[in-house]
Amino acid sequence: MKFVKEFNEGEHIEGQFLVSNISRGVNSLGAGYLNVELRDCTASISCKKWEVGPDDEKIFAVGNVINATLDIIKYRDSLQGKIVNAVLVDQEYIDVARFVAAPPIKKEILIENFNKFYLSVKDKDCKTLLDYFINKYKDKLFVYPAASSIHHEYSSGLLMHITSMCKMGEFIAENYPNINRDLLITGIILHDIGKLKELEGPVVFHYSLEGKLLGHISIMASEIKEASNSLGLTGETPLLLEHMILSHHGQLEYGSPVLPLTSEAFALHLIDNVDSRLTILNKALDDTTVGEFTNKIYPLDGRQFYKHK
Amino acid sequence: MKFVKEFNEGEHIEGQFLVSNISRGVNSLGAGYLNVELRDCTASISCKKWEVGPDDEKIFAVGNVINATLDIIKYRDSLQGKIVNAVLVDQEYIDVARFVAAPPIKKEILIENFNKFYLSVKDKDCKTLLDYFINKYKDKLFVYPAASSIHHEYSSGLLMHITSMCKMGEFIAENYPNINRDLLITGIILHDIGKLKELEGPVVFHYSLEGKLLGHISIMASEIKEASNSLGLTGETPLLLEHMILSHHGQLEYGSPVLPLTSEAFALHLIDNVDSRLTILNKALDDTTVGEFTNKIYPLDGRQFYKHK
Amino acid sequence: MKFVKEFNEGEHIEGQFLVSNISRGVNSLGAGYLNVELRDCTASISCKKWEVGPDDEKIFAVGNVINATLDIIKYRDSLQGKIVNAVLVDQEYIDVARFVAAPPIKKEILIENFNKFYLSVKDKDCKTLLDYFINKYKDKLFVYPAASSIHHEYSSGLLMHITSMCKMGEFIAENYPNINRDLLITGIILHDIGKLKELEGPVVFHYSLEGKLLGHISIMASEIKEASNSLGLTGETPLLLEHMILSHHGQLEYGSPVLPLTSEAFALHLIDNVDSRLTILNKALDDTTVGEFTNKIYPLDGRQFYKHK
Amino acid sequence: MKFVKEFNEGEHIEGQFLVSNISRGVNSLGAGYLNVELRDCTASISCKKWEVGPDDEKIFAVGNVINATLDIIKYRDSLQGKIVNAVLVDQEYIDVARFVAAPPIKKEILIENFNKFYLSVKDKDCKTLLDYFINKYKDKLFVYPAASSIHHEYSSGLLMHITSMCKMGEFIAENYPNINRDLLITGIILHDIGKLKELEGPVVFHYSLEGKLLGHISIMASEIKEASNSLGLTGETPLLLEHMILSHHGQLEYGSPVLPLTSEAFALHLIDNVDSRLTILNKALDDTTVGEFTNKIYPLDGRQFYKHK
Amino acid sequence: MKFVKEFNEGEHIEGQFLVSNISRGVNSLGAGYLNVELRDCTASISCKKWEVGPDDEKIFAVGNVINATLDIIKYRDSLQGKIVNAVLVDQEYIDVARFVAAPPIKKEILIENFNKFYLSVKDKDCKTLLDYFINKYKDKLFVYPAASSIHHEYSSGLLMHITSMCKMGEFIAENYPNINRDLLITGIILHDIGKLKELEGPVVFHYSLEGKLLGHISIMASEIKEASNSLGLTGETPLLLEHMILSHHGQLEYGSPVLPLTSEAFALHLIDNVDSRLTILNKALDDTTVGEFTNKIYPLDGRQFYKHK
Amino acid sequence: MKFVKEFNEGEHIEGQFLVSNISRGVNSLGAGYLNVELRDCTASISCKKWEVGPDDEKIFAVGNVINATLDIIKYRDSLQGKIVNAVLVDQEYIDVARFVAAPPIKKEILIENFNKFYLSVKDKDCKTLLDYFINKYKDKLFVYPAASSIHHEYSSGLLMHITSMCKMGEFIAENYPNINRDLLITGIILHDIGKLKELEGPVVFHYSLEGKLLGHISIMASEIKEASNSLGLTGETPLLLEHMILSHHGQLEYGSPVLPLTSEAFALHLIDNVDSRLTILNKALDDTTVGEFTNKIYPLDGRQFYKHK
Predict the structure, then answer these.
(1) Which residues of C touch A25 (CB under 8 A)?
(2) Which chains would you list as touching C if contact means 3+ CB atom pairs under 8 Å?
(3) Which of B88, B112, C191, D162 is the 20 to 30 Å CA partner of D249?
């Protein structure tokens, strides 16, 4: 099935769409109709549902995924869809690939890279915790984007962020002394797993109640504490990992309740910062012509970067 | 036994002291001696240990509590102690009352007031958590000061801070709608219990490793999470309490990873702020003559307040 | 007479309205007409004045209160008013209750509560100044809202803010030492009276020239100085009250030229802060369903609060 | 009589000194003595008072001006004074010229320049207020320094600051439109007069209680209000002047409760800023060798300026 | 030829316009047309180009200057232009006076004043550099506005800013010691010349690539360095001027990489600040009725100033 | 010859020392002597010069390197040096290795690593500029520390900082797209070369006049501009490099007049940040025992880091 940005005038389309906006209108004869915005991961299209039935309020709610049949027409120079019919799609039948962009690297390769780093950790306590959390969150971990709206915003984005950070973590641990490689790799793998509880998906991501009231940092720190106790871990490792999670935003005003106070916590923060910033910048440069400036990049202070020749 | 600020020239004193400073000297004949500063909760006194024995390094370490015999002399207009002999005191025999000031209200009355608020909480989940934590931390909770160095800095200071806040919590819950009284009182009682793990005592308070790497806010939030799980609590109450703990400093830059987002969390923060500030101010005004300004009060922006007529 | 939010299609309405917006239109025949937005304290309605007469420019000016007759019709799913005729209402005949929401507590009870606190002040200098200012500003004091647009924004809102603060002032003076109760109550009653000169009303509040160039804080401080001189008051009380007024915003960047430097000035600032914040929050929670978040509350940093179950 | 920095070993001196520091000592025989620091506007000298009499505590209090007889000796490479005898000097007999540096321009010339600007103001309301305040504060106005410790810190410093600002005010009013010359000159003359009540002197300046609790800005704004009322001034001039006083620090965080909102208020702030900064800088450069950097200039952000060739 | 704000219904106009906005429309018959906004320095007018030809995309691009023939009609109470025909205007034939407002003082007088200051500089090194730069940039220097969008925003605005600052520089150098007059005047003349490379014109000013990546401050500092080397200047003067350019924004956060550290650099910053702020304010007051407040003045913190009676 | 921290009581030492402090004393017989602090890169020692000769003022000036003969004695438990004789050492004979610590990696290996990166740059314009600057600054570049007092503070510290950054630059360029490897490596090599003119040495580093008035960032940007012009380089490369130098501090308030706006400028800033911070941290951890916290690390916000087990 075609994606929205591939639609042409005169086509008759059937497939899954996300309802992204809705408003009511009244035509010149006084009859009500619905303005419905439908979208997938490529674009959105304005549609009309002319005869409003009793179930339509439930079907056309923002955030729903529906299976719709559309006639594509042209109106004032733009394409518009006439909704012939539409039904709700059950969560389990949603075709996620239609709604979240594919990662630039194939998911299988990302998982392979991820596993290489995961299995390379030999420290016993680190390995115990990694086994526990990867087993617990594997499904979401391999699918979720890295953030609700900023960087690595495609499916498996978190996985890509983690493997990219692991690579840099390996580099840092090899080139700077006083850094425990296994602890750093473990912290990198675990640092954003709290987001899997903070965000709810799988298609339109929004913050869960727990996410809003606690934040992913505190959620994950508590999980490490609880898991360590139940797994019978003693020694400093659980405390050091909990500290790494709590401090990885690097500043109190960015939501870390403590500042990094170990070399691995400091390295984790620096690596997270470099990887997320360069990823955001690269995405913007990819969308820009050589010799031009990017649009304003809001997570980088709204700056416009120059793509040189 | 007399307190340090009651010593007079010529007296012969025997009792417990905290070693608060230490340096080595050499007399005119080339013999070494020790300059030892000893203190209790009233004042400190400079002392000399003239003949240095092999165990003296262990005995006269900063932070130790020792049992010493002193001759009090006058030197350059100040009192000075000559240490006749000294032995280490075991933790269990330390007479805490000599080192931490007594609270302005008798401890028994504080406990009675505290219990009144504690027992008034009827909400089932709140009560379950209160029972659990008060039982777990009762010993320290009734003895610890409210902070390592700022407000309510006498023994049972935390208890006094909690009961004073409970009183204001009761007032607020009665006078402003949309506030659940039991939830607010429970949050007030639990909000600083993390400090009992953050600080280690009992005489010279310093931050524990866990306190430095996690902070009392995260320590207590994790404890509530774990306790709720193990006590089988479901529903919103544990989440709401965890949120109250995490947000009670009111600002990210003061170490709260999330801002208050419920009425009880907001009230807890406001009450904590008012009680601690007025307590600090009152203590400074108590030490000031009418018609004069206080010394600089550092936790209140270094301001000097005027004690009017 | 009905309020705007109670209007129905087909009704014929006559009553007072505030002109809140105005623009000119031209119909398909080239004839001019007026788009007029009319409102009361419940809602606004778009209206058309089809035949524009020579006086209409004066009548339909933003901020005017008019007496209008309307036919209520439905246009594109919304109600619209056709203005049959309209005349200006003299200031003295304005029915204020139509334009400013009623307070949640009856005005008579608010005045009774206020008088109880006012009459309880026994300190002679405090009482002299209270008598002077309450006599001078009684009319406005009992009617004005607490602020032009933020908290306690209904009629008698300032009165409600004052009595609510007095209650907390009483609590604070009873529970914390070094606070002179009469001085604190007097400061609470007087602290915002400068706003009665800063804002001009009575229906649409806007800042007076004096309000913009001096601010309510300096206006009131000067008034206390002048009144004390003319009433022959000596001693510290006038100075202490002037200081309380000047410092009650608590920070230089919030417009206080000096910081609170007495216990009563500090308490006044803290009480003002707690009462106004909890009032803003409660209003937002009242408009929110249980289990949902409020809209962004701009005076509380734009936060959205959760109304728990 | 010589100034302190002119003293030589072996001299016998008699004259007025300010007691600027005091501490007690005990000699090798156990007898007490006093270490007294005495100063005038050129330097300070350490002195000993060997035999301490019963009145000495009252005579040698910090801030006192005494008439003392000294023997000047040399001790460890420095000059030291032996106090032969000393008596307190009554306020009225203090020789101010010994304690505050003379201005770089003769006082008579400063007054002449000042009067030229004062008398040039023709606007009736401005003139009425100038007459009132210059008459009221003439004595102090012609003598006080411009600040307790920063710029124009010699006698008549405020007068010099005012005349220098008037000159620039004249320049600004001539070269930029929309500025009322008489209003600006009046604002310049009055802007710091509140300091004459904020500071108490005449030798060691300290903040008065009124100065600390209200600040010179609010003190002067109230005075203008009161004076205008009692002088029967109506119209905008008193309000505009009050606004100029209140806003002349230019920023809320520098203690102005309102920002400049008229051209004259804005000009006053800019002129005050330029004159005080250039004066501070010039003083520092005067004390510096060509080709060197000044000491840190704290009121100019601690910067060190280069005195070029 | 008339300016846009002088157009009347029914007129037939021919002349140069700047294309300031463009969008496509489709009429009721499905034919495309262009919505074109045209402007000069007085106002803008909405126009329609009904029949879109093959070259129209190139002609009607935002930023182009075109020679157009318009019929002026009235549509919905506003004037509208019907574009009869249009051709591009070559850069060299653009009539700049139509697009940039004339300065309040005649250009010839500005140049005369400028030359008076320029020729008054006698210091040999200063004169050498002035000769070099004025010769190099004369054309643009006498024409450019002072900034892309803020102060002195008419043609020759930079020239007016420079001469106005020179006048104040003369005043400052005469009235404050330790300031080298020739160095200050030279710094004033050169301080913003970097803008002539930072901005590209001549009609719609936008930042050049060099301007965006280096900024006018660094551009000019490098030019002084290079010119001094090639002109064989030794001694401190080039360094002092380079420092004045680099530091004239006065604060790191305003883009100066170093703070002013000489008296002339400090004076340059203060004079630039006063002249640009008073100029902005005066322009806003000129557009305001007596007794009213100006619109928000964004470069002055968004304040609204009062134009008093 | 021994280093200062290896001295023992009774030894007779001869060698080079840096005069790091000086003060005059008078002995009990009234004769003057000098207190001289001498140091090398390991420690400092207090010395006395008892008989002060006419040349001693010139010899014992702070910052001088002298050749001195000392007798080492013990005084009050500390070692002290008696200066038997001393002469000034000419700049060219200074044994730098005594005063600046050796780098942790041998200088030869650092140079080898550096050359590997230098020679790997193939881009023609980059290579031309690298050849020019490395040739011009080779001597100092291979010897200077990385900063006057913070990170990489041993000899060849700048070289070590550059090679360490090059390594990370290589990693970044390989792992993130849109980054020109040669441009990044060139920017890394050149970014701090301005410090070689900003700091003057070779033993006690202090800021040159040019360094203070311009800063190393502007110095180097101008040099690139001038060199590019004289080398006849056109195209974007010189502009991009100049931009990288100007922006590499990453924030206006850290002295960069523009923010990074190209991918290489952004990467340079991030790499500089990571390398300098991890180097500072590692140095502090090297000086700390396992299980303890470091001293306050001022360039890392004064934090104390934990060296875990």
Answers:
(1) 76-77
(2) A, B, D, E
(3) C191
CA–CA separation, A11 and C178 (whole Å): 81
> Rounded CA gap, D24 and D27, in Å?
10
Q: Which of A175-189, F9-23, F50-64, F96-110 has the highest mean pLDDT?
A: A175-189
- Residues in B closer than 8 angstroms to A240, CB to CB, are 213
Host H or E run for residue E109: helix E107-120
State yes or no: pLDDT of F150 exceeds 60.
no
Digit-coded pLDDT (tens) for D67-98: 999 999 988 678 899 999 999 998 778 887 78
Give the three-state DSSP class for A271. Answer: helix
Q: Which of E171, E178, E285 sits opposite D282 (nearest CB)?
A: E178
E-strand ranges in A174-219 read 199-200, 206-207
The residue type of E6 is E
Please choose, from the candidates D49, D46, D39, D36, the residue with its C-alpha nearest in 3D space to the C-alpha of residue D4. D39
The CA distance from B161 to B110, in Å, is 10
DSSP character at residue D199 = E
- Asked if E107 contacts E156 with a C-beta cutoff of 8 angstroms, the reply is yes
Separation of alpha carbons E63 and E83, rounded Å: 17
The verdict on a CB contact (< 8 Å) between E270 and D274 is: yes
Q: State residue D150's pLDDT score.
A: 45
Model ipTM value? 0.84
What whole-number distance in Å separates Cα of residue B148 and Cα of residue C306?
34
Distances (CA, A) of F257 to A305, F91, F193: 16, 36, 18
Among chain B residues, the shortest Cα distance to F292 is held by B209
Judge whether F102 and F243 are in contact, CB under 8 Å.
no
- Distance, first Cα to last Cα, chain A: 38
Determine C/A contact with 3+ CB pairs under 8 A as the test.
yes
Locate tokens 């539409």: which residue? A86
Interatomic CA distance for residues B125 and D291, integer angstroms: 76
- D7-22 b/e (C-beta count within 10 Å ≥ 16 → b): beeeeebebbbbbbeb
From the list D134, D144, D133, the residue with the least C-alpha distance to D107 is D144
- Please indicate whether, in this complex, the C-beta atoms of D239 and C215 are within 8 angstroms of each other: no
Å from D24 to nearest chain E CA?
44
Residue E100 near residue E144, CB atoms below 8 Å: no
The pLDDT mean for chain C works out to 89
Return the structure tokens found at D283.
């003083």
For residue C153, pLDDT beyond 90: no
DSSP label at residue C29: T
Q: What gap in Å lies between CA B272 and CA F59, rounded to an integer?
A: 63
pLDDT tops 50 at residue B273: yes
In angstroms, the CA E234 to CA E230 distance is 11
- Tell me the pLDDT tens digit for each residue of B100-129: 777 788 889 999 999 999 999 999 999 999
Q: Give me the residue from B24, B209, B213 closest to F77, CB to CB.
A: B24
Question: Which pair of structure tokens corresponds to residue A70?
Answer: 């559309």
Burial classification of residue E149, based on how many CB atoms lie within 10 Å of its CB (0-12 exposed, 13-18 middle, 19 or more buried)? exposed
The answer to whether the peptide bond before residue A260 is cis (omega within 30 degrees of 0) is no
- Judge whether residue D152 has pLDDT over 70: no
Judged against a pLDDT cut of 60, whether residue F225 lies above it is answered with: yes
Please determine, for residue E176, whether its predicted confidence score (pLDDT) is greater than 50.
yes
H helical segments located in chain B = 56-59, 107-120, 124-141, 157-175, 181-190, 195-198, 209-230, 237-247, 263-286
When comparing pLDDT for E234 and D128, which is higher?
D128
Cα distance between residue C162 and residue C156, in whole Å? 10
Q: Which chain D positions have a beta carbon within 8 Å of F209's beta carbon?
A: 306
